[in-house]
Amino acid sequence: MIIEVCGPGCPRCRATEKNVLQVLKELEMELGDEAQVIEIKDIKQISARGVIMTPAVIIDGVKICEGRIPSPQEVRKWIGDSR
Protein backbone atom coordinates (compact mmCIF):
# COMPACT_ATOMS: atom_id res chain seq x y z
CA MET A 1 0.00 0.00 0.00
CA ILE A 2 1.41 3.38 -1.01
CA ILE A 3 0.04 6.42 0.81
CA GLU A 4 0.93 9.77 -0.74
CA VAL A 5 0.53 12.97 1.26
CA CYS A 6 0.45 15.87 -1.19
CA GLY A 7 1.22 19.43 -0.17
CA PRO A 8 3.96 22.05 -0.20
CA GLY A 9 4.87 21.54 3.46
CA CYS A 10 2.47 24.03 5.03
CA PRO A 11 1.20 23.47 8.61
CA ARG A 12 -1.98 21.76 7.33
CA CYS A 13 0.08 19.42 5.16
CA ARG A 14 2.38 18.56 8.06
CA ALA A 15 -0.67 17.90 10.29
CA THR A 16 -2.07 15.56 7.64
CA GLU A 17 1.20 13.66 7.40
CA LYS A 18 1.39 13.49 11.20
CA ASN A 19 -2.09 11.91 11.37
CA VAL A 20 -1.21 9.38 8.66
CA LEU A 21 2.06 8.43 10.39
CA GLN A 22 0.31 8.20 13.77
CA VAL A 23 -2.23 5.72 12.42
CA LEU A 24 0.47 3.68 10.67
CA LYS A 25 2.42 3.49 13.92
CA GLU A 26 -0.72 2.27 15.73
CA LEU A 27 -1.32 -0.35 13.02
CA GLU A 28 2.35 -1.35 12.70
CA MET A 29 1.82 -4.86 14.07
CA GLU A 30 -1.07 -5.42 11.66
CA LEU A 31 0.47 -3.89 8.54
CA GLY A 32 4.15 -4.65 8.95
CA ASP A 33 5.94 -3.33 5.86
CA GLU A 34 2.72 -3.30 3.82
CA ALA A 35 2.32 0.50 3.95
CA GLN A 36 4.71 3.14 2.66
CA VAL A 37 4.22 6.91 3.05
CA ILE A 38 5.53 9.25 0.36
CA GLU A 39 5.44 13.01 0.79
CA ILE A 40 4.82 14.83 -2.50
CA LYS A 41 5.82 18.51 -2.30
CA ASP A 42 6.46 19.35 -5.95
CA ILE A 43 3.54 21.34 -7.39
CA LYS A 44 3.86 19.71 -10.82
CA GLN A 45 3.71 16.23 -9.29
CA ILE A 46 0.77 17.26 -7.11
CA SER A 47 -1.10 18.63 -10.14
CA ALA A 48 -0.32 15.50 -12.16
CA ARG A 49 -2.23 13.52 -9.53
CA GLY A 50 -5.34 15.65 -10.08
CA VAL A 51 -5.02 17.50 -6.79
CA ILE A 52 -6.44 21.02 -6.80
CA MET A 53 -6.38 21.81 -3.06
CA THR A 54 -3.83 20.66 -0.51
CA PRO A 55 -3.37 18.80 1.66
CA ALA A 56 -4.43 15.66 -0.16
CA VAL A 57 -4.16 11.97 0.64
CA ILE A 58 -3.83 9.40 -2.14
CA ILE A 59 -3.86 5.67 -1.38
CA ASP A 60 -2.70 3.31 -4.11
CA GLY A 61 -3.35 5.93 -6.79
CA VAL A 62 -6.86 6.85 -5.58
CA LYS A 63 -7.43 10.37 -4.24
CA ILE A 64 -9.17 9.89 -0.89
CA CYS A 65 -9.11 13.35 0.66
CA GLU A 66 -8.38 16.85 -0.60
CA GLY A 67 -8.33 20.35 0.86
CA ARG A 68 -8.61 19.47 4.55
CA ILE A 69 -6.84 17.72 7.41
CA PRO A 70 -8.26 14.22 7.88
CA SER A 71 -8.74 12.90 11.40
CA PRO A 72 -6.81 9.83 12.53
CA GLN A 73 -10.13 7.94 12.61
CA GLU A 74 -10.74 8.75 8.93
CA VAL A 75 -7.21 7.67 7.99
CA ARG A 76 -7.67 4.40 9.89
CA LYS A 77 -10.91 3.69 8.00
CA TRP A 78 -9.33 4.49 4.61
CA ILE A 79 -6.41 2.18 5.30
CA GLY A 80 -8.79 -0.58 6.36
CA ASP A 81 -10.92 -0.08 3.25
CA SER A 82 -7.82 -0.19 1.02
CA ARG A 83 -6.57 -3.53 2.33
From TrEMBL:
<protein>
    <recommendedName>
        <fullName>Thioredoxin-like fold domain-containing protein</fullName>
    </recommendedName>
</protein>
<feature type="domain" description="Thioredoxin-like fold">
    <location>
        <begin position="1"/>
        <end position="79"/>
    </location>
</feature>
<dbReference type="InterPro" id="IPR005243">
    <property type="entry name" value="THIRX-like_proc"/>
</dbReference>
<dbReference type="InterPro" id="IPR036249">
    <property type="entry name" value="Thioredoxin-like_sf"/>
</dbReference>
<dbReference type="Pfam" id="PF13192">
    <property type="entry name" value="Thioredoxin_3"/>
</dbReference>
<dbReference type="InterPro" id="IPR012336">
    <property type="entry name" value="Thioredoxin-like_fold"/>
</dbReference>
